[in-house]
Design brief:
Largest sheet: 10 strands, mixed
Order of helices and strands: EHEEHEHHEHEHEHEEEHEEEEHEH
Shape: globular
Number of helices: 10
Number of domains: 2
Bound molecules: threonylcarbamoyladenylate, magnesium ion
Strand content: 15-25%
Structural class: alpha/beta
CATH topology of the largest domain: DHBP synthase
Strand order of the largest sheet: 1-8-2-3-7-4-6-5-9-10
CATH class of the largest domain: Alpha Beta
Number of strands: 15
Length: 315
C-alpha cells in the first residue's frame, strides 16, 4: 500500500487551506475532504476550471456536478428556493444532503457545471476543511468525488493520489471521511413532488418526515442523475454479493460476526460500515486475490445506500 509520501498530499492546516484557496481562485483543481467522500474541486463560475474536472476524471460531460456553498445564503444566489427547500436546508445543512433545485438565471455558474440542465445540485458540506476553503475562496465550488470516473470513491487522501495521480494540483489531507458514502440527492419538483435520485446518509423516511409528504413513486424520469448508471464504484475485479463465506480465490469483506479479510463493522454498526466501505473496496482491489466477495448487510437506514453502492460495484 502506498503511503502518504506523495508530495501533492498536504496537511489540511491553515497554510494548506490558504494554498488550496489560492489554487482554486486561479482555476486549478484541488482535492478536499468532505464528511462524505473526498471531492475534486474547481471554481464553479469558470468554464475552463469546470472542464478540467471532467478531463481529470474522464467523466462524460453530460453528467452534471454538485456545487458546494458555505451556507444557505450562498445557495440562494444560485437556485430558486421554496418553502420545502428552506425547511430541508434548515434541518440538514451543513450535512450530507444535495438538493436539486431550479437554476437561477443570474446564478453565474459555468454552463458545464449543470450540463445544460435547468436545475442545479447544491450542498453545504459538514466538514471544517471544506467549509474553510469555501469561505476563503468566497466562490461556489463544483466537486464530484475525487476518483476516475466509474472507479471506487475516495474516503482517504491516498485514494485520491492513487486514482487521479498527477491530474490534481493539490490534495488536502483531512483524514478519513466520517460518513464514507456520497450525499443523498433529493430533487424538489416545481409541482410539489420530490424524489431521491441517489440514496445516501440521509434516509428517505427522514426526508418524508421533514417534508410531510411521501416521494413520487415510479421511475418515470429514468436515469436523471446520470452518475447513477449501473457500473460505478467498480474496483476492477469481479464482486460477488451476499456471500456466506469466501471461495479460495476471493477476498472477503465481512460485517458483524462474519469477519472476513476485512470487517466493515465488528459490532454490526451500519454507520461504521458505510464509513469503511470504500476503504475496504480499495483494500480488496489491492489484494493478491482475483475476486471479491461481500457478505450480506441489513438494508435499513444507511444500509440502503451501502446496498446501492455494492450493487453498482458488482455490476
Ligand atoms: O457527497 C457528495 O455528494 C460528493 C462530495 C464530494 O460532496 N460529491 C459527489 O458528486 O458525489 P458527484 O459529481 O460524484 O455526483 C453528482 C451526482 C451525479 O449523479 C449527477 O448526475 C447528479 O449528482 N446531479 C448533479 N446535478 C444534477 C441535476 N441538476 N439534476 C440531477 N442530478 C444531478
Ligand atoms: Mg462519484
Amino acid at each position: 500500500m502506498t503511503g502518504n509520501s506523495d508530495r501533492r498530499i498536504r496537511a489540511a492546516d491553515e497554510a494548506g487551506i490558504a494554498a488550496a484557496a489560492k489554487l482554486l481562485r486561479a482555476g486549478k483543481l484541488v482535492a478536499l475532504p468532505t464528511e462524505t467522500v473526498y471531492g475534486l474541486a474547481a471554481r464553479a463560475d469558470r468554464d475552463a476550471a469546470v472542464t478540467a474536472i471532467y478531463r481529470a476524471k474522464g467523466r462524460p460531460d453530460f453528467n452534471p456536478l454538485i456545487v458546494h456553498v458555505p451556507d444557505v445564503i450562498a445557495a440562494e444566489r444560485l437556485a430558486v428556493f421554496d418553502e420545502r427547500a428552506w425547511r430541508l436546508a434548515d434541518a440538514l445543512w451543513p450535512g450530507p444532503l444535495t438538493m436539486v433545485l431550479p437554476l437561477r438565471d443570474d446564478a453565474g455558474l459555468a454552463p458545464a457545471v449543470t450540463a445544460g440542465l435547468p436545475t442545479v445540485a447544491l450542498r453545504v458540506p459538514a466538514h471544517p476543511v471544506m467549509l474553510a476553503v469555501l469561505k476563503e475562496t468566497a466562490l461556489p465550488l463544483a466537486a464530484p468525488s475525487a476518483n476516475r470516473s466509474g472507479a471506487v470513491s475516495p474516503s482517504l487522501a491516498m485514494h485520491v493520489a492513487q486514482s487521479l495521480g498527477d491530474r490534481v494540483d493539490l490534495i488536502l489531507d483531512g483524514g478519513a471521511c466520517e460518513r464514507g458514502i456520497e450525499s443523498t440527492i433529493v430533487a424538489l419538483r416545481p409541482g410539489g413532488g420530490w424524489q431521491v435520485l441517489r440514496p445516501g446518509p440521509i434516509g428517505v423516511n427522514g426526508l418524508a418526515d421533514i417534508l410531510g409528504t411521501r416521494p413520487e413513486t415510479g421511475g418515470g424520469r429514468g436515469i436523471e442523475a446520470p452518475g447513477q448508471l449501473a457500473s460505478h464504484y467498480a474496483p476492477g475485479k469481479p464482486v460477488r454479493l451476499e456471500a456466506e463465506q469466501a471461495e479460495p480465490d476471493e477476498y472477503l469483506i465481512g460485517f458483524g460476526a462474519i469477519a472476513g479479510d476485512i470487517n466493515l463493522s465488528a459490532e454490526g454498526d451500519l454507520a461504521e460500515a458505510a464509513a469503511r466501505l470504500y476503504a475496504a473496496l480499495h483494500e480488496a482491489a489491492a489484494s493478491d486475490r482475483p475476486r471479491i466477495a461481500v457478505v450480506r448487510l441489513p438494508e435499513d437506514g444507511i444500509g440502503a445506500a451501502i446496498a446501492d453502492r455494492l450493487r453498482r460495484a458488482a455490476a
